[in-house]
Specification:
The structure is a single chain. The chain is of the alpha+beta class and 845 residues long. It is 21% helix and 25% strand. The protein is built from 16 helices and 35 strands. The strands form 9 sheets. Strands 27-28-29-30-31-32-33-34 form an 8-stranded antiparallel beta barrel. Strands 1, 2, 10, 11, 12, 13 and 22 form a 7-stranded mixed β-sheet that branches. The radius of gyration is 30 Å and the shape is globular.
Amino acid sequence: MEHVDAVVVGSGFGGAVAACRLAEAGLSVVVLERGRAYAPGEFPRGPAQLGRAFWDPAEGLYGMFDIWSFSGCDSVVSSGLGGGSLVYANVMLRKDEDWFVHEQALPGGGYESWPVTRADLEPHYDAVERMIGVSPYPLTSPGFDDTLKTLAMRDAAAELGLDWRLPPLAVSFAPSPGAQPSQGAPLAAAAYGNLHDVPRRTCRLCGECDLGCNDGAKNSLDHTYLSAARHHGADLRTLHEVRRIGPRVGGGYDVQYVEHMPREDEAGEDGDGPPRRTGPHTISCDRLVLAAGTYGTSYLLLKNRAAFPGLSATIGSRFCGNGDLLAFLLRATDRSRTRPIRASRGPVITSAIRLDDGADGRGAYIEDGGYPEFVDYLVEGADMRPGRVARFLLRRMRNILTHDTNLSAEFADLIGRGELSGTSLPLLGMGRDVPDGRLRLRDGRLDVDWTAESSEDYYERLRSIMRRIGDVLGAEYADSPPWWRRRVMTVHPLGGAPMGRHPGEGVCDPYGEVFGFPGLYVADGAALPGPVGANPSLTIAALADRMSTRILESRASLAAPLAGVGAVRAESVGVGGVGVESVGVGGVGVESAGVESVELPAVPPIEVGTEAVPRGAETVSTGTEAVSMGTEAVPFAAGRADEPSVFEGRTSLWFVEEMRGLLTLVPPGGAARPGGAGGRPVAFRITITIDDIDRFLTEPEHEARAEGWIEADLCGGRRPIAGGSFNLFVPGETAGQRRMCYRLRFWDADGRPRTLAGHKEILPGAPTRLWLDTSTLHARLLEGHVEEDGDDDATVVAAGTLRILPSDLVRMLTTFRTAGPDGTAAVTRFCRFFLGELWEVYGPG
């Protein structure tokens, strides 16, 4: 089974921050994101694209927008690498200091209490703002100073005596920090690079922020924290959806997931047909960070509750919509009544009005809204009143009678002058609604028990002030359609796994760690015990940054030895009295095989302040030093038939191997020439898992699973392995020959199936060949997903060799882990088998 220091579920404001901070500190991090990656230029725009831009894998949809409808509210959240940052409106406001309330009574009973303060978060607010890059809308700069919706909001606030401001936005208006703002200018690259490897440019004021920024002007998490996380070694896996989670005996967690394989990603496919995926797969970790969004995280904890006995009874509580309210001002103009608003020009939000807290302390923000310019056509079409149509038909009949063949004026009148679209301004309200909702499972599906009734005073006050703003601008006020039935449409669902001071108050502590389950963290909106009031993105990110600091400061305690696993000395693993230090071959040690002697620590130390802290699990000694391993795992509770337990009492063993080298393209119909000129780099990192050590040792194929990733320019970069196998010491073509066989199946970036098939030749001969033979993989890249007996008929795309470096060997020796009963004996048997086979090939005789 694959094992890493940390698995992060989701890549939104909590998950991206955690992945970056932990990877930067040297931990091995895997991010499992259910959605796709979207580079600038790949966000949907046309009707055909937008029609498939929704998330419902059961219906073959793998798009960004995930729409939920519950009994009392509706909600829109995001699915994709970068989470909500892909489609949010960029506002990065801090939670007001007075809104970090302590035991504030709620109208329907109970109370809202925040176990953190503004002072606790200040340094983390600063850190997130620096990393993402925020700046207010440059209203005084040429090219930006005529943004009419912003000026209209400013003037209306001034007339009403309201607190108007330009909030920090995560948008690049200037090509570099300190430069003059300009539209559509190339953006300077960050030092950590960009995971999309696509140029970005500054904001063009197109109003398309909520559909994904095709210019890359939005400083979304894929361009910032996730790019930095990958730069520091984090493994970002898209279309990987987590289904089950559970704790492991002795510490750590198992995470079960499936990998979606969208049909439209494959050449010639239109996306129709039954859903397709691989799995379930399982990965284990020392620390599990749940950052799948309020709905995703709450659902995982509720669905897997049986695996977490003693989980706080507050699970599912404190739900709210962050006071979200959408309304419209129709036929609005500036204060002079001469100029239209043109809400489609600018980023979606440019300014905000802060409402005072009132008698009940439930203040709010009202922000100007925007939309893409193409929406203007939809608005005008909806406003094509019968009078305009009748006038067009009458004039058309007159033209026929008078033989007037010019229809330009008639069509111009039919389309209109854009009065409604040019004068409509969305208003976005948010603030401190009442967090008294509850998330629960109903027939296995997530449901929300929450209505706007207990927050009625808050909403009525918000609507009243919106009307007053409309009056100043000469506009008609209109509620959004959901409000006609007193339903709230929220894009900021919060709560479900709230933080608290103790399990009676919350699911997790003030640092996001779940009570009673060390190493399990909640790092998204689910952890919030009430509304942020302001746009919540910055506060979620700051809490995740604070959580990450806590993890890095306290991880020494998680590296304590795990119970029930003993150490195995090299003497007990020897073959014929020869220990690992001499590899058991005629006195030829590793040094003489081309690898210098290396002292192996249990795990490479990581600096925390001035103290070096080792990380890892219990160790098994190999040679004179130690190899990291795990301990027993607990099966998943209440798994369905299609989601079996991974262990079932057997003993498993796994380790991680990394190799790198070159592949040379093979011309069509040509012969493979490994090592030829023009080789392209290739590398893989796989976890080799022996599910049952007894079966592995007795069956002649000695087959194990291989999971992980392969990275090759020929295949479009790093690609997850969809299915892989490894065979150890199978008989070769000649007497005494052995082979280590690798078969890694994956899809390239264009959706084409590929197989990397290779073997290490273990040939009888001088012991000095041992290192060369066991570290060199002769590989071919084949078209299709090819089984072993199909290699000869498969089309060869490229061929070459990969090697394991001495430094990679050192790391590999620190990754040995076991799960199940008697792990120490399993390692002993495996080492005895491995060294015995080498002795058979290279030993005397």
